[in-house]
Amino acid sequence: MAFIVLENCIRCKYTDCVEVCPVDCFHEGPNFLTIDPDECIDCTLCEPECPAEAIVPEDDVPEDQVHMIELNAELARTWPVITQRKDPPEDAEEWDGVEGKLQYLER
After folding, report:
1. Using CB atoms within 10 A of its CB, is residue 6 exposed (0-12), middle (13-18) or buried (19+)?
2. Which residues, 6 or more positions from 67, have their beta carbon under 8 angstroms from its beta carbon?
3. What is the value of pTM for the model shown?
């Protein structure tokens, strides 16, 4: 089982989670992070680090976010690995908690 980054990460893209990952399974896109399900070892270290609470175990993905399981896997195949924390976007707090953000995902 892997951890999954949910839609709430879109346009928030806090990177606190990447520094604690022991296997470097996070990948970075323009305004979203993904977790490579083949690399994730289910260590649970990233989940409490996410200020947007956008990381959950695959078994706990809400029904309306199930599409994020495949999206994480797909984007992790093409986006580069990220291992160091970066400053979030200036408007990250404004986007935290906004529903229906998939339309804003930049590939």
Report:
1. buried
2. 102
3. 0.97
pLDDT single digits (tens) 16-40: 999 999 999 999 999 999 999 999 9
> Can you spell out the DSSP letters for 65-95?
GTHHHHHHHHHHTTSPB--S--PPPTTHHHH
**Token pair for residue 66?**
């199930």
Extended strands (E) in 6-104:
26-28, 33-35, 55-57
What type of residue is 58?
Answer: E
User: Checking phi first, is residue 44 left (phi over 0); if not, alpha (psi -120 to 50) or beta?
Assistant: left
How many residues comprise the chain? 107
Q: Name the residue among 43, 62, 48, 56 with its Cα closest to residue 17.
A: 48
| Percent of the chain that is helix, strand, coil (3-state, to 5) | 30, 10, 55
pLDDT in tens, 47-80: 999 999 999 999 999 999 999 999 999 999 999 9
Q: Using the 8-state DSSP alphabet, how is residue 81 labeled?
A: B
